[in-house]
Every structure is written in structure tokens, then in C-alpha cells.
Amino acid sequence: MKTVLCYGDSLTWGYDAASAGRHPYDVRWPTVLQKGLGDDYSVIPEGLNGRTTMFDDHGAYSDRNGARTLPVALGTHQPIDLIVIMLGTNDMKRHTGGGRAFEARLGMERLVEIVQTFPYLRVYDVPKILIVAPPTFVAVEDEDTTLLLGHAIEESQRLADAYAVVAEEYGCDVFNAGEVCEVTSIDGFHLDAENTRRLGEALVEPVRQIFERG
């Protein structure tokens, strides 16, 4: 059995902007990915609202610094055959990442380095890595959301290219979520039920191809 760890933020956790709660388990993209891959795979969801690539958020109780918590996840779930990293949305906030795709790229580089250098048990191989660039933001009428992320709409459009550079440099795979899904107009950066399902379905074939290459 192949183990796939999905490491991300609220887009992986399944935040539902319409209810301010969580999408049902069966429509979250890691669950849909599991269903599409079948019983020969174990897909582990590891999403946390507000998680960044490597930046602190001192306004939250949970540790949202993805670089600090990733080693715990790697140690907990090993052996891992593939880790899917979908982060960067929260790096677009000025108070938790600088608000630019450049900082998100630096953070993604750090996460990839952690995965590739973590001291796994000697009987286990280093996991393969699939970087998923989040879909781009859209403008909304909500004042608080505009204050939080309105400045970053253009920067969010640069994430896919930024992550492609990381993938090329470190020998990873990359997938642009914006090619298969779009964010909700409610808040401009989360996924509704249909789009989180669509992402899970779209990732099935890329994940299979990664394993087929060996």
C-alpha cells in the first residue's frame, strides 16, 4: 500500500465559507483523492486553518508555522511514499508571510528541504513530493476580506510560476489547482464543495503517474 500525506491549510482541512464550518468528509479533496486512487493507497489529510509555509501567526492558538510542524507530521506518519504540499494562501497575508508570492516560494523551498533531509527510519525511503499551487484569489465585497487579502490578488496569480521554479530546482512534481478549480465568491480564497471535490478528482491521475514512474 502506498501512503500519501496531504499537508496543507484550510483548503485541505475543508473550510466552508458558506457555513463558516467544514465541508462534509466525503467532498474534501483528500477524501476524493483517496476514493479515486482506491484501496492500494492510504491518503492522510493533514490540514490546518491558517497554516503558512514557514511563517508565524501569533494571533492563533495553533502553531500555524508549516516548517515547524512538518517534521512532527513526517515522524508521525512515516513511512510516507508521497507528500502533497498545498500551502501559500496564508503567506499572502502581510502579517504572516509578507504578502508576496516570493515569500511563499522561499517557504515552499524550506518545506521541500525538510522533506528531503528528514531523518526517516533507515528502512524507509525519502517521500516523493507533489507541490500544489492554490487557485488565485478573486475580489469580493466583504470589507474584512478585502483588508486581509485584497492586496494579494495579483500576487496569488504568481504562485503557480513561483512553485514551478521550486519543483524544477528540487526535482519535485507540481500541479496548478487553478487549472481545475476556482475559489468561492463568498470570501475570494476558499473552495466550495464542488471545487474541493473537483481538485481531488483532478489529482488522481497526477498521483498515479508519479508512482508509475517509480
Automatic annotation (TrEMBL):
It comes from the Bacteria. The keyword Transcription regulation does not apply. Pfam families: Lipase_GDSL_2. Residues 6-185 form the SGNH hydrolase-type esterase domain. InterPro entries: SGNH_hydro, SGNH_hydro_sf. Keywords: Hydrolase. One of its GO terms (molecular function) is hydrolase activity, acting on ester bonds. CDD domains: SGNH_arylesterase_like (cd01839). This is SGNH/GDSL hydrolase family protein. It comes from Plantimonas leprariae. The lineage of its organism: Bacteria, Pseudomonadati, Pseudomonadota, Alphaproteobacteria, Hyphomicrobiales.
